[in-house]
Write a structure and sequence with these properties.
The protein is mainly α. 74% of the residues lie in helices and 0% in strands. Helix 2 crosses helix 3.
Amino acid sequence: VGGGVGGGVALVFGSVVWLRRRCWRTFVACRKQRATQSLERQLRTFTRRMLQSPVLLWLFYVHVLVLWFLEGWRQAVSQTLPMDPTGTVISQADVAVSAPSSLPPMPLLGATPHV
């Protein structure tokens, strides 16, 4: 019964299809809830008002830009964690670069080799 790599691919594909259907059914069931419909109506009303009023629209844009700025600033000033994998990769790359190579140096592109 479906051995080898093909069986594994079919199993993964079947699982993905099942998960997609399950997520869609859950989404549809959630949208039918009274609280969800009320929230969606309020959001649609807010969006309609925002599109009719240039001041509200610009206020929305400014608020999004402020959020982007704050997130960029937060990432710029944050400290890396001691177990950050980036530090390990960089240190291993530094060791690999500084290690002597047994291979001859590569010629530059377009350079004619001196024989």
